[in-house]
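One example given next:
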Amino acid sequence: MTKTWYEILEWCSKGKNKQEKIKRLHKNSGSELKHILGYAYDPDVIWLLPEGNPPYKPVPSSAEIEGQFQADIRRLYRFVDGPSETQQNLKQVRRETLFIELLESIHPDDAKLLCAMKDKKLPFKGLTKKLVSDAFPNLY
């Protein structure tokens, strides 16, 4: 069974010290992890969604959703400010509906992670913006 991104980041945050946390982040380094951390901590990323958890129904944990969030990471641009026509022409109600649909299609832990990314407050003690910047100096 594949781990969720929530589980991976939780494991990274439980390193004994800064060096071990950075080592764990590097062990899981890849474009998906960097996207997650960038969307969560890059000051230039401005989410176009209201703060807080939207009303959504988490997927039952027994559902076949393994790896779904990984596949959807590349579509997160729809929810942030940017130059693309999709971002500028998407009506707010549609954007929020798409976000809720995404939350309802991924593992419940990853849905929690996505809401935390949007609010720029990852729920992992010790996995701070500074630590991420030290681990990946060119991330943002």
